[in-house]
Amino acid sequence: MVAKILFLVLFFAVMIFVGLRTRKSATSVNGFVLGGRAVGPWLTAFAFGTSYFSSVVFVGYAGQFGWNFGMSATWIGLGNALIGSLLAWVVLGRRTRVMTNHLRAKTMPEFFEKRYNSIALKIVAAIILFIFMIPYTASIYNGLSRLFGMAFSIPYEYCVIAMAVLTAVYVILGGYMATAINDFIQGIIMLGGIIAVIATVINGQGGFTAALQSLATNPTIPAGTVEPFPGAYNSFFGPDPVGLLSVVILTSLGTWGLPQMVQKFYSIKDEKSIKTGTVVSTVFAVVVAGGSYFLGGFARLFDDPSFNLGEGKIAFDGIIPHILSTLPDILIGIVVVLVLSASMSTLSSLVLTSSSTLTLDLIVGVFAKKMSEKKQLLIMRILIAVFIVISVVIALDPPTFIAQLMGISWGAMAGSFLAPFLYGLYTKKVTKLSVWVSFISGVGITVGNMFLKFFANSIVAGAVAMIAGLVLVPIVSLITPKLKKDYVEKCFICYDKDIKEKANSDIVSE
């Protein structure tokens, strides 16, 4: 217990110290929100990775999908690395950095406004972002607090409140630069921790080969169900390939349309840094995401009566904490800091994105256009606190499992934003009405499924919402009025090799 407490005290002290040291970089709106667009490739890559993988992945997703899919759940982690990280950087990295700088867009809603010449799009995008960030944030508190309860026997409520206060302190103090530096430190902890945990757990099962044999010959089957086929849980594609594919799509392609992820490309120092960031981010994802799902794949070897809720229902959120409870005390301390690192980084990114969006896109962008930078910074800091309080209230009484909470959030935001953002960077033919259709379909499919149950769960609904947007936007763009040619040309002139990036545009909504 002493070792675990020392780990936590040191961790908290470092986070606060970074927040204090980076205060000078948060004295302007551009510095507070984007770190002055001067963040190096390593910091950006780690910020991307640590914002991507939180306690939701390590505790909620690894437990649920490891139990459902067995060893094939590892494909989810590899999909996250190849699609969610590598391809995201290759496809979106440079073009996002160049166009958002050209349009002087600090947030994703502001990008929609200036790319499609519509203040209304910005307002609605900001509302969607704020509403659906909340369940995602609540899921992060939930996952981390379960682990704290296992390691320290601390009541869930105290864990949630303590984490919220700490995050608020360093984000309010240092803004984006504080989160980026802390993300780098937290990322190093995550890399070392996940490797140590996997090695210890596999060794405890007699080695990798022995663990695979045990998984094949003695799977735990929920009451009322039948094993799909012998050895299903250590097979290449597992017992449910279609369900597995849905999870890969949601958790990998979803990052392309999530504001807190995409905005990492806004802040990177220059185009050259993107190449380094691509490699670092991909390697990080392979180790952290691949390792988390690989560990979850052995979930059925750690069956416990507490998992069984009756009627074939499993308490998925308790699986990984139970596995970790079998580790030596010193390693449990490392794991707690690991998951705390993952969660804090994601939470800080979410609250910063939400507060900057509400301030810049709604309050300043619509109601108080002449507000001073000093007041804008004050409002953003106040909204960070407000957003954290709201998410804490929800986290104290979460409505469903972690994976479902995150699925609702990712499905609505990525389903709404992915297609118009991606196509908006590459083609001049996207129309304003097609963006509206994407917003409506993304939110409509996700929310509609909550009440009408079109699909098996929010994970599948989220994947469908993203695919629907990718299909609908080009089709609607073919049959609806185009934006003015001159306006679109001004947006895309930034990709002309003869135009230096420093020649920023003065594009604003007409």
What does this molecule look like?
- By secondary structure, the chain is mainly alpha-helical.
- The chain has a single domain (2-398), classed as Sodium/glucose cotransporter (Up-down Bundle), CATH 1.20.1730.10.
- Helix content is 74%, strand content 1%.
- It has 19 helices and 2 strands.
- Strand 1 and strand 2 (313-314) form a beta hairpin.
- Helix 7 runs antiparallel to helix 14 and helix 16 (402-426) packs parallel to helix 18 (458-479).
- The model is unreliable at 498-510 (pLDDT under 50).
Pick out its properties.
74% helix, disordered C terminus, 510 residues, mainly alpha
Helix content estimate: over 70%
Distance between the termini: 61 Å
The poorly predicted ranges are 498-510
Oligomer: single chain
Q: What is the C-level CATH assignment?
A: Mainly Alpha
Count of strand segments: 2
User: What is CATH's topology name?
Assistant: Sodium/glucose cotransporter
- Determine the CATH superfamily: Sodium/glucose cotransporter
Tell me the number of structural domains. Answer: 1
Radius of gyration: 22 Å
Total DSSP helices: 19
Which range does the strand content fall in?
A: under 5%
Strand count, sense and closure of the main sheet? 2 strands, antiparallel
Helix and strand composition category: mainly alpha
- How would you write the strand order of the largest sheet? 1-2
